[in-house]
Amino acid sequence: MNTFDFGIVGLGVMGRNLLLNMADQHHAVAGLDLDADKVHSLTQEADSEHRIKATTEVKEFVELIKQPRAIMILVPAGKAVDAVIGNLLPHLDKGDIIIDGGNTYFTDTDRRFNELSVKGIHFFGMGISGGEKGARFGPSLMPGGNKEAYERLRPIFESIAAKVNGEPCVEYLGNGSAGNYVKMAHNGIEYGIMQLISEVYDIMKRGYKMDDSTIQKVFEEWNHTELESYLIEITGQILKKKDTDGQNLINMISDWAKSKGTGKWTSQNAMDLEVPLPTVDAAVAMRDMSKSKPERIQAASKLIWNSEQTNTDVPKAIEELKGALHFSILITYAQGLALLTKASTEYKYELNLETIAKIWRGGCIIRSVVLEDFRQAYAKNRDLKNILLDDTIASTLIENQSNIRNTVQFSVQKGIPIAGLMNSLAYFDAYRSEKLPTNLIQALRDYFGAHTYERTDTNGTFHTEWND
Questions:
Q1: CB atoms within 10 A of CB 241
Q2: Residue 452 to residue 444: CA distance in whole angstroms
Q3: Quick one: average pLDDT of 379-393?
Q4: Of 76, 101, 264, 425, which has the fewest beta carbons less than 10 angstroms from its beta carbon?
Q5: d(CA 407, CA 413)
Q6: Using an 8 Å Cβ cutoff, are 226 and 326 in contact?
Q7: What residues does each domain of the chain span?
Q8: Is 148 one of the annotated active-site residues of the chain?
Q9: 183 is catalytic
């Protein structure tokens, strides 16, 4: 048998769409799922020109794929991945490749990478971004694993990935869990940008009392400016959607937001690496706050702030909001890229930030025109510690300083929660501060805990008897 180019385990939405994408690109592909209905539906959906075979039998599935075998797992992260690996292993040979295409925490990928290396099996963790449509017609792919083994995967992945200026949005990123780590940082940035967009929407609606139609048109128009991006584009589409009664659907959607944990992972690991991500942290915190709906209903009638009425110059307000959002989105990307810079050293990934910016330009959820600016910045200076130090990005931030400051000031006066916008500005102000008040924190720690401190006028560590 052994005539199929690639295999996918898990024929849910993502698995099925990736298989069909590969088949469109003239690859012979095999699918495995224990659910006979999913196997049948894939067979029904396949074109007559597609070379697809799906089965519920592990042994049959493995024997379909030519050696060295390339098999992707698309099942929920955690024990299910280990279970699939356990089922596949008895039928695999040395040199075969297993790819985990789910949102797996990077330390789990490292464990599997090491365990399977001993058995002669190559293990890849690969981030996939673009959702259901992206998987079907062109996702952004973030693979990490053995560099030599990647050559077996490269032609297939390059054929199915999104393209920008003819360049596929996939490239080998690094050893071990590099791919899953980059996807985790991607999702943290995604959390931050969605929070920022929702805050600007709230300022328009509650702060400036704009009607739904005006807000929708603003987001639609912004997608033809420097804010052009997938998330801005779909915001305009969402705000246009009508419910069955003809009213705007957005007004009927609960504000109790859910999450799958990837944003939290980003924040937690950033704290481990001592990399500040205040905008991402705020986004995670506000999703948690959204779950306190019963308490918020109570608090709304008790914790009252009566703001002053203001006369609004709507065109000016919209221009300021655009600048504030642009500023904050740049800051959010900067935080995520700074995390990748530190993680690359800490975990020996040897990440190329230009490559990451390049493959994020298309297919993925955080694709945006600004990613080309980032790519060019890293092309000029691969050792850039923070994208804010690039002259072009710094200039854009400086141009929008008054917009973010005026927006924050207005929102605070109105009592509108803008944790994302405020934390973006705070990050900017902290990063550009040659001196921070943390000297007092050092003194306080030394006073109550004899934790010592450093001085500015000489080397060494010191302790003072403060209450002597």
A1: 11
A2: 10
A3: 96
A4: 76
A5: 10
A6: yes
A7: 6-176, 183-431, 438-468
A8: no
A9: yes
